Write the structure tokens for this entry.
Amino acid sequence: MENPLLNQGSLPVFSTIIPEKHIEPALKQVITENRAALTKLLDSNVAFTWDNLMAPMEEMSDKLGKVWSPVSHMHSVVESEILRDVYNTCLPLLTEYHTEIMQNETLFKAIKSIADGPEYQKLNAAQRKVIDNDIRDFKLSGVSLPPADKARFADILKEMSKLTTLFSEHLLDATHAFTLHLTDPEATKGLPPETLKMVAQNAEQRDLTGWVLTLDFPCYSAVMKYLENRELRWLMYEAYVTRASDTGPHAGKWDNTQIIEDILRLRHELANLMGFANYAEYSLATKMADSPKRVLAFLSDLIDTSKEAAKAEMAELRAFAKSRDQLDQIENWDIPFYTEKLREAKYAISQEELKPYFPAQKVLDGMFVTVNRLYGIHIAEKKDVDTWHPQVKYFEIFDQNHAFIGGFYTDLYARPHKRDGAWMDEARTRRILPNDQIQFPVAYLTCNFTPPIDNKPALLSQDEVETVFHEFGHCLHHLLTRVDYAAVSGINGVPWDAVEFPSQIMEHWCWDKKTIELISSHYETHEPLPELLYNKMQAAKNFQSGMQMLRQVEFSLFDFRIHLEYDPKLGGRVQPILDEIRAKVAVVPYPTFNRFQNSFSHIFAGGYAAGYYSYKWAEVLSSDAFSLFEETGTFNPKTGLSFLENILQKGGVRDPMLGFVAFRGREPRIDALLRHSGLTAEKM
């Protein structure tokens, strides 16, 4: 039987992949073949050109990506013990191979010879950008280091790869290990009907009576917002913020504390090897922000613009909790609960009241109409596509002339053995093939919403609507590209602090009245969202926006400072730095048992190390860009076409600031972000 990872066709055939049988042999075979092909290329004793070096290198990279992409994705969404073991066995092989490539001096000199030769100026902008980025990345990967330092660099990468994977696995295990079994109906008081059904189903699946609360985010979030029992909220909060740590209900069992220290130590050593003072400086070498000073000043400005508003919001919340329940001291496990109750009191609206109007399929259908009106694209579900789970769907995208341009999978619902959160990832990248045909891009769109229950559709909160729009924005960036070289196609080659720009701008349409008409319809009556509810929703849009801004700045500062200030003699000083930042930024004290950092997978198991500030950095771009749509019309086809051509189609070829200026007509300003966040009186 053929190995399905080596004979995939246009899409992976997930159902035929047997982890213990197919993954390691496929990976080893491709790596062996690529090594042989590279040796042959470099031994050819000819003048190197795009066609005889760069194009074959891209072919090798794509071949490996097609093997590893479905494996990595399945590891995130349908993990099993066998898959985890095989994944961890293969990861060092992959890391070793990539390091070997990026430290190959002969290959580096060969690519540099193209950059320095006569062909370079004849290449198109995308080809030149691939070469320029390669030369930069070779240098950042230690190609010019002495042999001993090169070997150490490679060892560091291999060790970090293991640690970041272990961090993620610890978090997954700790999240799923905790349950809270309730048998007294009084204990569930306040939970919405849909949540009650979900936690009752949790109990049934475990052969228990009553209700089972879990730390899966749809359950945890609902409990913290609606459960009247304060002691149970405290138990859930403590379990959630101590996951994978040295404290809490599973203290020490999946503890990420030492892993964090080891990751920071290795990152600092790697940066030092490359001549940088710290990992923050190393990280910025490939980003828009040009210095740590610029990042810190940017975050400091956000504190200045939001701190007073946040303090006033917190004072209002304290007063409300005192008047409602005679609560003298509000704690972290009270904030979501009283926030929701205050929202209802001030605006006569709750997330639960809105959810019946946002069934998941209606939201998707309306989102597809939205991008059709903006960019002229058409989206249609394709049935009978092999997937990794029955809930997964596959869609195809066509341009304004109905020509196929790409596809994407949606995996929207939480379940066991699936990593928490929401993300987009690549299954295929657009590139030109040796036969001059186009390989079309394919994306994974993954979320963790409450699944359909009792034959009723899944209903989304406004936050979840924003989440799916956000991740679909990443998909559009990946799928609508017109760049034909994988290394700078779609999201590839885009500076990390600009990559959130196309995703964050999509969130703005969730609040636009014309879009709301497209994405909302009561799941039972099919009535549109009433005008009164829409007006209440708009009125409540920026509720506690100061506190939300400070929360993101807190995360960003923590991430940046632990990488900027790492001292080999003192270690990471993770908790002290976090405590310092919270003392300056937070408007309510955190309990001493809080170990938020131990579950901060964005920076310890993802790509945001010394780059979490990117969310706010890119939000300046997205808010300012959307303000042009506000000026010209949120569905103005000319503005939509300009955004498509200047941002979405350009991939990583053009400097994002140049793309922004081409679209907006000037450099970005922070005014629109503050206005959209309700932190300024400025009006359109």
Remarks:
- The beta strands are 179-182, 211-214, 378-381, 393-398, 404-413, 423-428, 431-432, 438-439, 442-449.
- The chain has a mean pLDDT of 96.
- The domain at 257-349+545-612 is CATH 1.10.1370.10 (Neurolysin; domain 3).
